[in-house]
Design goal:
A 4-stranded antiparallel β-sheet has the order 3-2-1-7. Strands 4-5-6 form a 3-stranded antiparallel β-sheet. About 12% of the residues have low confidence. The protein is α+β, with helices and mostly antiparallel strands and 141 residues long. The two termini are 25 Å apart. The chain is built from 4 helices and 7 strands; from the N terminus they run E-E-E-H-H-E-E-E-H-H-E. The chain has one domain: NE0471 N-terminal domain-like (2-Layer Sandwich).
Length: 141
């Protein structure tokens, strides 16, 4: 199981940069983190109970709370704070980011939402911005 070795919030461009002990590093947009929150509010309590999240294009993160040595709890600017993001979940989200974006955009369009996100299906995600350093994994600063 991968373990986080460093993380940085990039608040201007709204993405989380996270690096793992196997050398993998991902820049995960806040919007993607929010719409794929592992919380019951978003995921439901079983297959087919997911709630499509809309209007999250400009969501921010005001704080990251460590949960033991295995997870993070982001506090989003829209008030959402019930998702516990394990290192394994964040690794999977980063590794499968483009497929998740494509799926998300497809679900938005199928539900009649167009232009809800600034990203197009299949767009390669990467970010550059001024860094706002938040600290190491599992440490609150």
């Amino acid at each position: 199981m991968p373990t986080c070795t460093s993380l940085t919030l990039h608040n201007k461009s709204r993405y989380l940069e996270i690096t793992f002990d196997d050398g993998a590093s991902f820049n995960i947009p806040y919007e993607l983190l929010r719409v794929y929150s592992p919380s019951a509010e978003v995921q439901g309590h079983g297959p087919g109970q997911e709630t499509l999240q809309v209007g999250k294009r400009d969501v921010g993160i005001t704080d990251l709370e460590p949960v033991g040595q295995y997870a993070l709890k982001p506090i989003f600017t829209d008030g959402h704070q019930s998702g516990l993001y394990t290192w394994e979940y964040l690794y999977d989200l980063g590794a499968n980011m483009n497929a998740r974006w494509h799926d998300y955009i497809g679900r938005l369009h199928a539900a009649g939402f167009f232009g809800d996100t600034g990203r197009e299906p299949g767009a390669v995600l990467h970010g550059t911005s001024t860094h706002t350093h938040h600290g190491g994994c599992g440490h609150r600063h």
